[in-house]
Protein 1
Amino acid sequence: MNKKSSLYLLIVLIAKIVIPSIASVISQRNNINDVLPFQTSERISETSRFKNKYKRNKGNKARSRNVVVPPFVSVETPNHNYPIGLLLTGNASIEDSCTASVINTSNGNIGLTAAHCLLDDEGNPWDLSFLSFSPGYDNQSNGTLGAIPVVATEMPPFLANRHKYDYALVRFEFNHGGARLQDYTGALGWRFDIGNGEPTIMFGYPESGNIEDCANDGKHLCRWQGTTNKSEIVFGINNLIPGEGSSGGPFISQYNAETNLGYVYALMSGYFEIANISIASIWDKLVFLNLLSNITP
């Protein structure tokens, strides 16, 4: 399926939720949070190459069982967890930023971001020397650990389907006396079983947009709170313009403000102006677990 066809199908999918939602808002002004779930009768197919690589099997235990990994509290600073940070990309002439997060893994140095954050404008992967991550970045200042190099990345076939596969794993170069990155920052838990209408917190570093109580200048960590809608391939947030820099921002379920931790289940991907909706790819569990296996030494 080419890029134009994929975009058309996504617009059709979004239209099927946005139009009913508008009607619902008009008829139920006293309950603006009631929105209809995404609906679609069409699936965006994978490429045959990708199907062969990640062939599904009814007997595949990783596919059949639910996977829920809990959050990890910092060992070094248990009262101060800061797994979310700024991901810098670019070279001497071009610099861009996204949002990334540390997730709980046995390796301890693994994070998440949007796949498109790891590619230049031509769709080529950035040289790893051009990538760095600062957990706890805020107010135009690096976190206490400074900027940490990225030494490996893994992503699904994003260019084959940009809307379905806009997520990626990154591995950081970190070892302080045997301690892992998540031993310092803490780490978000992660899961695949989130449904429609999930209460969610989303964090990011937007350079623009309409997130409330946010400087929207790319220099401050901002927070959005609300519920997400679910289709077959994306989660959506109606009426939210996330702004550049928020890409890769974690969608967190069961967020605990005291620990600054919860379960990440999706990542901010982008904004569709025609439908006034922000979207995040739904993770394919088998694909995600393969990425994690590949990036773990």
Note: Residues 1-5, 16-63 have pLDDT under 50 and may be disordered.
Protein 2
Amino acid sequence: MNLLGKTLPPLASLLPFEAAARLESFSRAADELHITQAAVSRQIRGLEDNLGVKLFIRRNRAVFLTQEGRELGRVVSLALQSISDGAANLRASPQRNRVVLLCQLCEAFYWLMPRLSTFHQQYPQIEIQVVSCTRPITQFDSHFDVALQSTRRASGAHRLMFTASDEVFPVCSPAYLCPEQPLPLNELQPCTFLHHSSEPPHLMEWDEWLQVFGRVLARDARSATFDSYPLMLQAAVEGHGVAMGWRRTASRLIESGALVRPCAESVFLPEAISVYKEQGAGSRGEVEALLAWLQAQLHSDG
């Protein structure tokens, strides 16, 4: 007797439900699955009818998971992830020594790549596939084993392994501003302030940084805004103004003389960076080796 066939909910509804539960949005789930919002709503209504419970509360054109919806979301997500992992393992069976590292673009470019050769020297049998991304890991649709991103970014149900510190301070080109002694903060007011804009915000920006020292950015301050942090940092290198520099990404540019710190003030963030394992992933020696190496590198940098 096929008991599964009698007890399972409609299988076609599980992908739309998982996406809607994870994103808490029917429209974003529809975009992710490349179907209409009406189709997502129809599948979830059919699932609710099948189970006899409400999975979402619909209010003011927004949806919110009920307790039952949240519990089912965890079960379905783990089950689909297990199926996905099994399929991925079958597809990648000739590549079992490969580890996929998803890394924020700026950290990948400025922090990871200068150090990665030491991992290859220590573990020559492990192949690291670096995938860079400018969006949170919740919006990354492909497989990864380990992910590194700013702590403030959405992480969904992926498993947090450890965090690491960073510090934030102004940086600029020596051709733009290079005082013999560190400047007081008020002397930055005539400068052009370079801003990084993202939605939702995840990096400390000028307003928040200045508030730590009891100051505010003047309303008439000159500014330029960039949607890419590496682009903003390059603008600082080219003398367009003063940017917020993060030690882990800006330190080599400072050491090379491409950037300088015009002020002595700095904000220390004890948990600025987070490292994750993919949700539902099992234990693999290659992945554990990469995690141990990342933790050692991040903590040795302080």
Note: The mean pLDDT is 91.
